[in-house]
# Entry
Amino acid sequence: MEFARRLADLMLFRRGPQDMPGDQSSLVVSIAAYCIVLFIQVALVGSLAGALVQAGLATLMLGLYAATILRLRGLSNRFNQTATSLFSSGAVLTLIMLAPTHALRPYLDALRTATDPSQVPMPSPLFALVYLVVGIWGLAIYTHIYRNALGVPIVLGVAVTLGFEVLLMLVFSVLG
# Structure
């Protein structure tokens, strides 16, 4: 219960990653939760095999990215708390995104198969808005985590957060 309270406070910007547990078991559970929920989200709009690859690769990339950024700043000792913060908040955000992802599936399917883009029905504005708001909230949370973990100004926290998103998009664009 204490972990959930700390996580909620982190996601509401009342605590930083330094307030999260730094033990291996919290980290492993956070990684597993993130990977499982991400797998479910991707499987809602794609194949199970593709979801397995994407969830596994995104999980691995997030861990390696955080470790690399911390190491570059000479702060490797903060990895467990930072990664636990990133993975556990990511799991909660992805869990929140399951309903909007499911609701947007017909729109995504139509986009994939449409020969004439003007014939694609517009997605539900409510679910599109929820998707956007939760996405922005997620970027703000990750910025908060990186800013605190790295001890940098918010601008650099934003840059580190966006750097990961760009890297993720590049890798998945190349992989198709």
Notes: Helices lie at 2-11, 24-45, 48-72, 79-113, 125-150, 154-175. The first helix runs from residue 2 to 11. DSSP finds six helices and no strands in the chain.
